[in-house]
């Protein structure tokens, strides 16, 4: 394998002349990710809880906070050194401790890819039902099309990041046009006053609780990009290119997409984005738009799969595995999820909330370690050294200060809000669940590091 392939498809740092994404390219990647995935799905989910005014406020506030925290913690270190975030995370959790985070992340990414594939399947099935007698709820059709989405995604990912770049250059502008068209159709059918008067589909009795849940889901949405962003930003040409497109694509366009999705859900009385296009645009144009949106989900799947497969190279027997074979195995392990489309798709809000339980504390610990304790300096060579006495090996490969900080903060999250049932404590109504978990994780990591890790001379803290 050449040096270029080893850095692009392996764990070695990507050199400046090997980085393929400029600001425009990475913006297109982020816009494609944001609109295809979160814009419609989250917008539809919000319509279950809140009206338009509360949804707009919660989307802007929650998503912006989550994206800034996630982007600072992942994009800056990875783009500065050209390394995958799971390599740089060895400095935080230890050479082997990072594998604990990796295990959780991989399970979550399997689920996300399955959600997107199922969305592709439902959209394709809706199109087929318009031209045949096929039922929109045909399980076989949804599964077959979801499998097709996975196959197409594998063929693209197997070719590497350049193919992903060109796919997003085509899809992202088209998605923006679709969003603007959907907004224009909604505003032509409803006055602004009528849209503001639309009521949520299935809200809880307490309006403030509904708002806080929507704020929490948006915060979790912003944080949920944590698993993949380091793997993508290592391919960016500068730290500025790596950071600002997150705010443009994953924040601005995601919120825009969510608001259009929220309007559609409220107006049509369904939170499923695949059921909006034909009623809004009519049979012919609606099917064309729905087909484009279906394939747009492939852009999100490819980016998720690329970064996750890169992260899996932390495991020794996978590190030297052929890239096409590794990505094949990743998608093969995603396939079982698509056989339960209703169960996976209907629990989207629960799945999203779970992202906040772990990625909030991880982002906080990562941020404090890199920006506060290390002052943005890493010993890159030592990140690849394994064994006792090595700078980032800590206690047998585990930095218990960082691991305990994440674990304790995650438990606090569950005490405040159960992401499975959405049962919450009174404290949730005043401070959400993610914010206290994030603050606690950061403070704990700082205190434990200063009291235990640094005095023992572990972790190469303070070294140039």
UniProtKB/TrEMBL annotation:
Keywords: Membrane, Transmembrane, Transmembrane helix
Localization per Swiss-Prot or TrEMBL: Membrane
Gene3D superfamilies reported in the protein's UniProt record: Hydantoin permease
Transmembrane segments: 20-42, 54-76, 97-119, 139-158, 170-188, 208-226, 247-268, 280-306, 326-345, 351-372, 392-416, 428-448
Membrane topology reported for the UniProt record: Multi-pass membrane protein
GO cellular component terms given for this protein: plasma membrane
Main location: membrane
MF terms in GO: cytosine transmembrane transporter activity
InterPro entries listed in its UniProt record: CodB, Pur-cyt_permease
PANTHER family: CYTOSINE PERMEASE, CYTOSINE TRANSPORTER CODB
Family statement: Belongs to the purine-cytosine permease (2.A.39) family.
Protein name, entry field: Thiamine permease
Organism annotation: Novibacillus thermophilus
């Amino acid at each position: 394998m050449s040096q270029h392939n080893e850095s692009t498809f392996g764990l070695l740092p990507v050199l400046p002349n090997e980085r393929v994404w400029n600001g425009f390219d990475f913006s297109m990647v982020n816009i494609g990710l944001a609109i295809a995935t979160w814009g419609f799905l989250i917008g539809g989910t919000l319509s279950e809880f809140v009206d338009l005014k509360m949804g707009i406020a919660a989307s802007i506030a929650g998503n912006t906070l989550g994206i800034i925290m996630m982007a600072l913690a992942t994009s800056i270190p990875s783009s500065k050194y050209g390394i995958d975030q799971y390599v740089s995370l060895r400095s935080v959790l230890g050479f082997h401790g990072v594998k604990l985070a990796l295990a959780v992340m991989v399970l979550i990414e399997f689920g996300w890819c399955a959600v997107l594939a199922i969305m592709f399947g439902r959209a394709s099935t809706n199109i087929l039902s318009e031209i045949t007698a096929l039922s929109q709820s045909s399980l076989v059709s949804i599964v077959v099309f979801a499998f097709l989405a996975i196959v197409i995604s594998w063929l693209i990912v197997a070719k590497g990041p350049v193919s992903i770049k060109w796919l997003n250059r085509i899809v992202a502008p088209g998605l923006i046009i679709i969003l603007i068209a959907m907004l224009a159709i909604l505003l032509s059918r409803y006055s602004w006053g009528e849209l503001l008067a639309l009521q949520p589909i299935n809200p809880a009795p307490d309006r403030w609780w509904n708002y806080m849940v929507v704020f929490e889901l948006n915060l979790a949405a912003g944080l949920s990009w944590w698993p993949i962003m380091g793997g993508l930003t290592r391919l960016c040409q500068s730290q500025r290119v790596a950071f600002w497109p997150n705010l443009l694509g994953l924040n601005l366009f995601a919120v825009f997409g969510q608001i259009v999705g929220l309007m559609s859900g409220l107006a049509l009385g369904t939170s499923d984005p695949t059921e909006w296009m034909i009623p809004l645009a009519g049979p012919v144009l609606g099917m064309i738009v729905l087909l484009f949106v279906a394939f747009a989900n492939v852009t999100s799947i490819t980016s998720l799969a690329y970064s996750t497969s890169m992260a899996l190279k932390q495991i020794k027997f996978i590190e030297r595995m052929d890239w096409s074979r590794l990505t094949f195995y990743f998608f093969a392990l995603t396939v079982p999820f698509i056989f339960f489309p209703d169960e996976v798709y209907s629990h989207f809000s629960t799945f999203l909330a779970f992202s906040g339980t772990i990625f909030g504390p991880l982002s906080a610990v990562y941020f404090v370690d890199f920006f506060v304790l290390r002052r943005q300096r890493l010993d890159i060579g030592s990140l690849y050294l394994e064994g006792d006495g090595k700078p980032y090996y800590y206690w047998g490969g585990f930095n218990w200060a960082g691991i305990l900080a994440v674990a304790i903060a995650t438990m606090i999250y569950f005490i405040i809000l159960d992401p499975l049932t959405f049962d919450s404590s009174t404290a949730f109504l005043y401070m959400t669940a993610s914010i206290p978990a994030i603050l606690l994780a950061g403070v704990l990591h700082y205190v434990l590091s200063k009291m235990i890790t640094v005095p023992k001379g572990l972790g190469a803290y303070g070294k140039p």
